[in-house]
Amino acid sequence: MIKNKYDTSVIFLYAIGKENLLPTEFRKKIPYSTISSWRKTNYSIYYNFLS
Questions:
Q1: What pLDDT, on a 0 to 100 scale, did the predictor assign at position 44?
Q2: Structure pTM?
Q3: Quick check: 27 and 51 in contact, CB under 8 A?
C-alpha cells in the first residue's frame, strides 16, 4: 500500500478549518481517516503555531 504525502499547506488548511479553499475534487480524494487525524492533532505543541 502506498501512503500519500500532502503538502503542509493542505494539512494547515484542514487544521484551521479552511479546507473549503481547496478544490472539491481534490478534497474528495483525501481519505476520511487522514482528515480526521489532521483535525485531532494538537498543533499548539509546535513552535510559533498561529501566534
A1: 75
A2: 0.77
A3: no
